[in-house]
Amino acid sequence: MTELQPIPDDWTYAPAPESRDIVTLEREYGLFVGGEWLAPSETYTTLAPRDEEPLAQVAQGTEEDVDRAVQAARGAFANGWSSLPGSERAKYLFRIARILQERSREFAVLESLNGGKPIKESRDVDLPLAAAHFFYYAGWADKLEYAFPNRRPRPVGVAGQIIPWNFPLLMLAWKVAPALACGNTVVLKPAETTPLTALLFCDVLRQAELPPGVVNIVTGDGRTGAALVEHEDVDKIAFTGSTEVGKAIQRRLAGTGKKLTLELGGKAANIVFDDCALDQAVEGIVNGIYFNQGHVCCAGSRLFVQESIYEPLVEKLKQRLTTLRVGDPLDKNTDVGAINSRMQLEKIEELVAAGKEEGAEIYQPPCRLPEKGYWFAPTVFTNVAQSYRIAQEEIFGPVLSVLTFRTPDEAVEKANNTPYGLSAGVWTEKGSRILWMAQQMRAGVVWANTFNRFDPTSPFGGYKESGFGREGGLHGLEPYLTFDDSETFGG
Ligand code: NDP
Question: In angstroms, what is the span from residue 270 Cα to ligand 1's centroid?
Answer without folding.
Answer: 24
